[in-house]
């Protein structure tokens, strides 16, 4: 993709100003950054590390996957956890420093009557891993509670909804789960069926008892709550619109906020094509990637609009300290040392990536 | 007018063996012709074939249960042979799950894998004696995999409670097969909205069918994530072939003359040629032929050939997703474009 480097830099500087990144960080550029990403190459699914080098993110390590990955989670001990895209059947721990042979890989297969829904979350100690899953017999959502080392399932907690997707800890250490609410059936894979039955919600689960203690819904039942970020006491949710009417879908909000006032959707001053692909907390609020609107939207903690950074196909978001990385047609680094990097042209990035080092 | 039009689809078609140049007159087919072909000339006869073989299962299992002395071993062989016939007919039917197979959740009801021995043991203790009692038994303890377990892994002894349970499983299979025949006899979707939904569903399910064979049935077992299908009965290779032949028949244009619209099963390649989408048809034909060659004679012990077959199937999936579906203006739920 051709990018005018001067125009792009102006945009990035504007976005950095909008983020109110402290001067000290701007003066301390972080070169040689590495991100863990899932991507398509030659029609096949891969997991890899993309390292900054000569204004490019170049492939530094790669592992071919049997099916597409979705959520990625560095375990803080040199390994990357990756979860198969929904409806998925594998969970993988990959230690890139060990290569891509058997010693570097730890696969965990899900039981016959369950499917992974693409995301996982570690607890603070790193001992427990929580995965969003579906009971294929009933269609009901579950949180799989796993030993983080063995990846073996220890328990299951119902999410009181279907299609659970991202998970997040709230400020008090309770688990927040986004029930995407889109009905599907194992026989038809990812195909959305009977959207009139859609029922998306956000639930809060007591992490000691595993019980849902509070559940929130938006009034628009065709907005799917999917990806989560938190800043202090505010949880932000990236939305995926599922309205039948294309115009309604295109104009739908891409953000909801949960705070002391409850859960509410947040309208934007411009149409964002009804799809927030990923979300990330920033210093001053939240960034929501909008791959169908080709850019990243910024809001403050209260949902007040702060601007839109054009970025072709931008979806994957990651944060390191006060720097935001947005990946799509290229990689945009917003914050500390704003710049645009080309991504290895053989790699078509998937929805999510994670800061590696 | 359009339906009556003939389009001369002159292109290089890869034949069953060597490539040959062919000028084929292919009629224009509508989405309705394609969907009707799948339902009337695919689903309905395949459901009937499965029902016929499933209907013979109870008698075969019953003979084993009643057998005494020297008759017991041949009776078990006969029950196993009947199971194999029913299983292969099922693979052909279930390779492309559409319409009633989805609505009735037949893949789960009849083919939950792997069977769960502990649940089978519990079901045997419960001694279900009729259809109502069998409804209370969960899918992991009945259906074809459970019966395979009862005939091979832990072969039922004549007169034993397990044999009586195996008979109930066989009768349950025959009942569901009859219900599928009845459901498959219903009118295929006709009005515009239903037709659009059915077309999208069938294209998506074709992608899913290829992916299921590639990943769940061939590649995942090689990575230790599952057993090869039908391992206990030693029928893995036949199972793969039955599925692939059913998929192939729905994708690849045969050497015989294309059907008059509305009179037969319409492979996707033929449909594409009838619409003048020759480049897409050629790419699809080539990918299917590569997969066909790689799957021929494939067995679970084939080593590196397994990975080549999986790659060839991935190639078919990519063509369906990236070339065929866009050309037919069908949104693919298995692909990138549906969000997440």
Can you walk through the features of this model?
The complex is a heterodimer of chains A (357) and B (340). Helix content of chain A is 7%, strand content 49%. Chain A has 357 residues and is mainly β. Chain A has a domain at 29-64 and 311-357. In chain A, strands 24-25-26-27-3-2-1-28 form an 8-stranded mixed β-sheet. Chain A has a 4-stranded antiparallel β-sheet with strand order 4-5-6-7, with no helix packed on it. In chain A, strands 8-9-10-11 form a 4-stranded antiparallel β-sheet, with no helix packed on it. Chain A is globular. Chain B is mostly helical and 340 residues long. Chain B has a two-stranded antiparallel ribbon. In chain B, 50% of the residues are buried. Residues 1-21 of chain B have low confidence and may be disordered. The chains are: A mainly beta (357), B mainly alpha (340). The A-B interface holds A 40, 43-44, 66-67, 70, 85-86, 89-90, 107, 109, 112-113, 118, 136-137, 165, 185-192, 226, 240, 275, 277, 351 and B 97, 101-102, 105, 107-108, 112-114, 138-140, 201, 204-205, 208, 211, 215-216, 219-220, 223-226, 314-315, 318, 322, 333-334, 336, 338-340.
């Amino acid at each position: 993709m051709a990018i005018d480097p001067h125009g792009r830099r102006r945009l990035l500087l504007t976005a950095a100003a909008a983020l109110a990144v402290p001067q000290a960080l701007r003066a301390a550029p972080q070169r040689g950054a590495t991100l863990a990403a899932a991507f398509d190459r030659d029609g096949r699914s891969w997991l890899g590390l993309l390292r900054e080098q000569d204004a490019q993110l170049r492939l530094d390590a790669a592992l071919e996957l049997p099916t597409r990955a979705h959520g990625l989670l560095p375990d803080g001990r040199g390994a990357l956890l990756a979860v198969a895209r929904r409806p998925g059947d594998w969970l993988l721990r990959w230690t890139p420093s060990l290569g891509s042979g058997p010693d570097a890989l730890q696969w965990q297969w899900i039981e016959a009557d369950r499917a992974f829904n693409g995301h996982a979350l570690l607890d603070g100690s790193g001992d427990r891993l929580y995965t969003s899953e579906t009971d294929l017999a009933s269609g009901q959502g579950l949180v799989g509670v796993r030993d983080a080392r063995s990846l073996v399932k220890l328990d299951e907690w119902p999410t009181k909804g279907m299609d659970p997707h991202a998970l997040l800890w709230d400020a008090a250490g309770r688990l927040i789960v986004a029930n995407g609410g889109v009905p599907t059936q194992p026989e038809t894979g990812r195909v959305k069926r009977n959207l009139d039955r859609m029922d998306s919600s956000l639930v809060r689960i007591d992490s000691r008892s595993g019980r849902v203690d509070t559940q929130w819904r938006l009034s628009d039942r065709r907005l799917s709550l999917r990806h989560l970020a938190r800043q202090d006491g505010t949880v932000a949710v990236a939305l995926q619109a599922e309205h039948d009417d294309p115009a309604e879908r295109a104009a739908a909000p891409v953000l909801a906020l949960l705070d002391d006032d409850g859960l509410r959707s947040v309208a934007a001053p411009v149409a964002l094509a009804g799809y927030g692909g990923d979300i990330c907390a920033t210093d001053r609020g939240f960034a929501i990637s909008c791959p169908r609107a080709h850019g990243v939207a910024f809001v403050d903690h209260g949902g007040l609009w702060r601007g839109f950074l054009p970025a072709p196909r931008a979806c994957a978001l990651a944060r390191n300290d006060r720097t935001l990385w947005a990946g799509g047609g290229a990689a945009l680094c917003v914050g500390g040392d704003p710049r645009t990097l080309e991504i290895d042209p053989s790699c078509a990035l998937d929805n999510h990536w994670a800061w590696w080092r | 007018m359009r339906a009556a039009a003939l389009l001369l689809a002159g292109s290089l078609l890869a034949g069953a063996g060597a490539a040959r140049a062919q000028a084929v007159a292919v009629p224009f087919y509508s989405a309705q012709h394609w969907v009707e072909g799948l339902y009337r000339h695919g689903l309905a006869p395949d459901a009937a074939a499965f029902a016929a073989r499933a209907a013979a299962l109870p008698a075969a299992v019953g003979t084993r249960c009643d057998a005494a002395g020297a008759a017991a071993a041949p009776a078990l062989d006969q029950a196993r042979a009947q199971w194999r016939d029913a299983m292969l007919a099922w693979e052909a039917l279930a390779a492309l799950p559409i319409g009633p197979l989805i609505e009735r959740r037949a893949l789960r009801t009849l083919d939950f894998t792997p069977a769960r021995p502990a649940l089978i043991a519990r079901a045997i203790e419960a001694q279900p004696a009729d259809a109502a009692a069998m409804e209370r038994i969960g899918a992991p303890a009945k259906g074809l995999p459970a019966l395979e377990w009862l005939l091979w892994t832990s072969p039922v002894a004549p007169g034993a409670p397990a044999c009586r349970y195996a008979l109930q499983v066989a009768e349950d299979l025959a009942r569901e097969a009859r219900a599928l025949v009845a459901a498959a006899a219903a009118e295929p979707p006709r009005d515009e909205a239903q037709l659009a939904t059915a077309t999208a569903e069938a294209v998506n399910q074709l992608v899913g069918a290829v992916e299921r064979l590639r990943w769940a049935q061939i590649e995942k077992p090689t990575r230790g994530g599952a057993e090869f299908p039908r391992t206990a009965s030693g029928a893995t290779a036949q199972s793969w072939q039955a599925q692939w032949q059913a998929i192939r028949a729905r994708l690849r244009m045969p050497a015989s003359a294309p059907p008059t619209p509305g009179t037969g099963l319409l492979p996707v390649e033929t449909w594409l040629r009838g619409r003048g989408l020759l480049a897409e048809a050629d790419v699809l034909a080539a990918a299917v032929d590569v997969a066909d060659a790689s799957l021929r004679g494939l067995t679970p012990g084939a080593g590196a050939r397994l990975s080549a077959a999986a790659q060839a199937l991935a190639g078919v999936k990519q063509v369906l997703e990236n070339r065929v579906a866009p050309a037919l203006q069908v949104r693919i739920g298995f692909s990138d474009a549906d969000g997440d």
